[in-house]
Amino acid sequence: xxxxxxxxxFIFLSGIILFCSILTYFIPSGSFERSTRTYGKVTQTVVVxxxxxxxxxxxxxxxxxxxxxxxGKSSPISILGTLSAIPKGLADSAVLVFYVFIIGAVFSLIxxxxxxxxxxxxxxxxxxxxxxxxxxxxxxxxxxxxSFMGIVTETxxxxxxxxxxxxxxxxxxxxxxxxxGVPTFLGWSAGITNPxxxxxxxxxxxxxxxxxxxxxxxxxxxxxxxxxxxxxxxGDRVKRDSSLALIKNDNFEPxxxxxxEAKSLNRRHILIILFFLISYASILVAVQTIGWGLIxxxxxxxxxxxxxxxxxxxxxxxxxxxxxxxxxxxxxxxxVVGVARGISVVxxxxxxxxxxxxxxxxxxxxxxxxxxxxxxxxxxxxxxxxIPSASGQALVSMPLMTPLADxxxxxxxxxxxxxxLGDGLSNLIIPTNGVLMAMxxxxxxxxxxxxxxxxxxxxxxxxxxMAFMAIAIAIGY
Length: 477
What we know:
Blueprint: H1 9-23, E1 29-31, E2 34-39, E3 42-47, E4 53-55, H2 61-65, H3 79-92, H4 94-112, H5 115-127, H6 131-149, H7 159-168, H8 173-189, H9 198-204, H10 213-240, H11 267-289, H12 294-312, H13 316-329, H14 331-349, H15 353-365, H16 369-386, H17 390-408, H18 412-426, H19 434-443, H20 447-475
Antiparallel strand pairs: 1-4, 2-3
């Protein structure tokens, strides 16, 4: 049997960047005009439908080696441009990279206080006889957080705790990774009020923010049921027979923080956890109501660090040692997020992204309405491979999908549904999803093992998404 082994995540993503650079020599270059629109306090640059123009390519030795700008023409990505894509991707996603570093450092600090250990062992003592209740509670909390608030990146520092919980309850590493990965990405796909997908898409489609919630709530319930059943089915199978685990000969020792030692929950631990939960909830409310972004969220987490240090009674030096340990733990996950952005840098600088968008929309126009709706879903899924950013994807695809839906007789709400499902479900499986690769890196789960684990559920959920698209078109959603 042929065994496929994926190389280190940085090598893998670099290979995809190289592949996309080569594509810029073969796919015609072109571009849409862009316009600036203001939605409330937010200004966005969006595509102008019907403005696509093909641009001739300029190829020379200099252009191939170092890059060369020629007025009125585009140049394929040079060797220097391919190498520059990674630092440019890191620069473009600098705020997100910093945010990942900060949340990792904050969780490391809270872990150092003993509060996380105390809560963890309290849960184990309460649910040890019936772990499925605990897993269901955790699953629904993560699923709801992703669906309502867009919480995904913030879960990365929790992975060691979930791995430890999985091990203590008799499950394997993959189950621990699935316990955090499945609900967050599925919940993101079933976005009810997700500010990073649903709200942006509805604003661009000129729909009332929060509208069409009824069908998405049904979708929420269906995907949550599928995800939890799938996860527990795998977990129960492995718990009965460890030889069925996808990762063989795994000693399964979670790391990334101090060892998980049993601690009794005391008043100080409770104060730290309550303060963190209230603060975090307030941050998410601010994101929803007053438009806070990653910079404001990062600043708030820095403030949380100060207060947690005071509550815990730690000295400044102690807190900084814990803080720095968290930064060190998040080096690879944070950089993965930035390196993955290099893919979209290549596509944009090579001016082939708009060509892909244009050709896809032209193909969809030739299809019957029912088929075109499924085509929108498929297109958004493929686009997510090249633009692994939900908001970035919305800004380039929704301005095209909105008028396209009007022409095809499909409601704009259905176009939004195609976008959130295509973007969300593909996140389960695409290697250009920086957050997924960061999670796998911390969990020490090889991508090819995750792929084998998640593929059956991915197909089930895609067919479910297609059914919801068909329903949406049939009822005029």
